[in-house]
Amino acid sequence: MKLTVCLTGGIASGKTYVSNKFAEKGEAVIDTDVLARQVVVKGSEGLAQLVKALGTGILDKQGEMNRSVVKRLVFQDEQKLAVLNAITHPLIRKACFEQSKLVSRGVELWVIPLYDGGAEYPDFDRVLVVDVNPEIQLDRIQSRDEVNLKLAESILAAQPKRQDRFRFATDVINNSGTYRTLNQNIDHIYGLYSQLLAAKISLNKVMQM
Predict the structure, then answer these.
(1) What distances in angstroms separate CA 207 from CA 67, 72, 185, 204, one per listed residue?
(2) What is the percentage of the chain residues whose pLDDT exceeds 90?
């Protein structure tokens, strides 16, 4: 028996930090950002499709995908972004479900930055949103990805709206403060999920009697 949780949030909101904390507690993490890299590795069908659609200019000298080039390409052209998503998203979802089959118990955390409540993903028990002020996001994007403000704003604009994420949320962690506060919030949420999982297991036992 497991409790399935979708962890979502905007770019540079701190999703990786939160998911790492769950992993440290021994819980399964299925990260679509990690899988997004795996489905387009050199020699993969995913990369072959992208090259066919976007051109060989997206490759580096080693024949691997140049993520910086792709990022600048798609976030300044909505049509190219749609092509990228149409190719990679089905491959990522397939990889997610394959990983999920290997998990039979505990809290299973799916990290899905672009989650929109669609039927292509499981009916999650909980949806956890990591929220942060947009101004902080822009600063983090520019610093982390080494891009200018204009491109950072384009990247942020291409993501689901902040208010839309709240529509799907059952739980919210605000990451606009200190790491100490963030860690406390993570521990609180994890405690809640542990209780919900225990209740789910108990109910299942009763129904089997």
Answers:
(1) 50, 53, 33, 5
(2) 65
Residue 169, SS3? coil
Strand order in the sheet with 28-31: 28-31, 106-111, 2-9, 126-131, 171-174
The CA-based angle 156-186-164, given to 5 degrees, is 35
Distance CA 189, CA 4 (A): 14
Structural tokens at position 65: 């995908």
* Cα–Cα distance list, 139 to 23, 142, 145, 149, 184 (Å): 27, 5, 10, 8, 24
**pLDDT tens, position by position, 48-67:** 999 999 999 999 999 999 99
CA Rg, the chain, in Å?
A: 18
Terminus-to-terminus CA distance in the chain, angstroms? 16
Residue 68: which residues within 8 A CB-CB, separation 6 or more?
A: none
DSSP letters of 59-100?
A: B-TTSSB-HHHHHHHHTT-HHHHHHHHHHHHHHHHHHHHHHH
Q: Distance between CA atoms of 67 and 70, rounded to whole angstroms?
A: 5
